[in-house]
Amino acid sequence: xxxxxxxxxxxxxxxRPSVRFPWLALVAAGYAAAQLALxxxxxxxxxxxxxxxxxxDPRNPAAYFSAPRSRGISFLAAPVLAVTGSAPVLRTVLxxxxxxxxxxxxxxxxxxxxxxxxxxxALLFAGLWTTVLYGPQAMPNLWVALSAxxxxxxxxxxxxxxxxxxxxxxxxxAVAAATLFRFSDGVWxxxxxxxxxxxxxxxxxxxxxxxxAGGLAAGGAQWIAEAYVRWGGIGARLHASSAxxxxxxxxxxxxxxxxxxxxxxxxRPCAVPLTxxxxxxxxxxxxxxxxxxxxxxxxxxxxxxxxxxxxxxAALSVPYLVLIDYSAPRFFLPVYALLAxxxxxxxxRTVRAVRPVPARTAVAGVLxxxxxxxxxxxxxxxxxxxxxxxxxxxxxxxxxxxxxxxGLHAPCLVTGSHSQPIGYYAGCASADVSGNNRNxxxxxxxxxxxxxxxxxxxxPPSGPPGYAxxxxxxxxxxxxxxxxxxxxxxxxxxVP
Length: 496
Prior knowledge:
By secondary structure, this protein is mostly helical. The protein folds into two domains: 23-353, no CATH class; 391-485, no CATH class. Helix content is 60%, strand content 5%. It is built from 19 helices and five strands. It has helices at 23-39, 47-54, 72-83, 87-107, 110-113, 115-126, 129-134, 141-158, 165-181, 183-199, 206-231, 234-244, 254-259, 281-300, 304-322, 333-353, 357-405, 419-426, 442-449, and strands spanning 412-416, 429-431, 453-458, 472-476, 481-485. It has a five-stranded mixed sheet with strand order 2-1-3-5-4, sandwiched between helices. Helix 1 runs parallel beside helix 6 (115-126) and helix 16 runs antiparallel to helix 17 (357-405). The longest helix has 49 residues, at 357-405. It is globular.
């Protein structure tokens, strides 16, 4: 594998650097506009978002934070929540921040690939329905994706002759960010980068390896400290994480990932048919194009940018393809972000290889038309998934409003089906006696219910939880939920 010297500035006819149009900035601005126009308006907070946000929201009790989660997205949203609890404001800020991060992450690659290929890679990733939908959401996967793009770019630049200390700081910072947003993904990102340091003779330098290791340690410090404080150690937290994920092991989840390409947003259990099979062209061609790009790169002897991007993408896909038994489209955002780079490189090489100029123009036109078709298909899926997400969050809000009409007000407790998001909307604490988010015993819950306004939620056909059989049932019309409220505590006799 060979490294590449950083691209030199383009020269004009008189040998002076030519003025470049800021195409990458235009893509980032378009990405922000797409989020604000298509995804952010009127989109409430999803289940996972309420868990992350409740950790730093001064207006609501913190929901149970399970072992696999990392707190990076909570830290990112904390400054906004310190000022306001408005979901539209949070969405707007995250949309602008994610667009800026998209620009910054792919900008790292411009000296490596040149402005055209870098811009195309950013456009390919920014145009995906998952990228647009999750840009304004308080979810970690997009931020891991952009951190991974920056990390691999900084890694390659760190091995260029005369690389500065700032490049090493960028490498360490990007790995730290990915690890802070999602600890396990940070490990899967760092592993191939460290392996490359040992396997490629030209990359056997201590400084980049130390930067990666330092970033991994810095980004994972909070997760590791919390493992000892709450679970008794790293091993215990990993064991709890496995239990929460349904038992991590050798599970082929490729079929689940395939069925959820165009939704649902969470496929668990994943027994749904593939929706819109006619719109799967991109997902079918992406691995084939990435593999073709690697073959072409190996033949031309310029392999570093292409093969390393594809290798890191493959590593980041491992936990979501072979270690869990469910899937969600957002899990693969880091994979898509990295594979966009070799695909853009392949497109650029294809156009440049065509002779004469009129034929090259025709090929470029065909590729541009295919890009338009691809973006149109992504928009179609985005509309449906955005509507589904809004319907879910609207239902959470409706249940919370019904609970308030039944007299629930802070301090209060919500338990049962979807207690975490509904509790957040109602301004109540949440607790569960069973399931992945179990954090209380029945006896402890009943003691709280005796002194605190409490509601147990259930959805048909299931009845009330065992401890709530004697509680009063209140059907929340139009939501699919039934709320069970305990009888009021007997009034204490007056003190003589």
